[in-house]
Structure formats: C-alpha cells, structure tokens
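BACKBONE GEOMETRY TOKENS:
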Amino acid sequence: MRRTSMISTFVLSLSLFVLMIFCLCPQMSYANAPQDVKLEYNALTQNLAVTIIHNSSSSGFHYIKNVEIKKNSVVLSTEKYDSQPAGTFTYNYKVPAMAGDKLEVTATCNFFGSKTATITVSPATK
C-alpha cells in the first residue's frame, strides 16, 4: 500500500510540474509547426509560389519566421518575417531555374518546427 501511495504522489507532482511549465510558458502549449508547404514554379516568369498552411491565433506572436529556398541543395535565399497573414498564405519569389533543377523550400515556425517541400522544374510551356 505504501508503494502505491509513493507512485501516486510522484505522478501528481509530475503532473503539477508539467502544468506549471505550460502556465509559465504558454506559447509552448499552442505552438505548432507548419501543416503544409506547397510549391508551384512558372518557368516562363521564373516565379516560385510558396503556399504555406500555418494556423495561428496571434499572427504577430506565433508565425512563420523564415522561408529558406534552395536550388540543387544550394541555399539561394532566406527570407525573414516577423508576422504572417491568415492561416493559409502564399509568398512569391523570383527564382531563376532551368528544367531539371530541384527547388527545395523550408518554412520554419518561430516557436516550434518546420516543413519542407521540393519540386523539380519542368520545361517551360507557352
């Protein structure tokens, strides 16, 4: 019986500790990684459209902090942000690429996680 009492006290103490951490650091309790990143590339205009799904109740406090663009595993640019539009939004970037190039984009949340998407550039069609 004493052993069960010790285990119950430990579980209760641990639960209170975890609850206290979430109360002191509330952003951790509702932070989430980007749900999805979709890419579309227009070879004629050299436009890379990056659509990101990242729901946030406070887009100035919890947002996509940067978008990194790579071409053939080489970093072309890292765009930094301090807020985001509504839950689903699209950023457009001028990216020179040729057919067969591999474009990779990583969207990173300012609190927790990231999501990466890749696309292989198709030949330009009129």
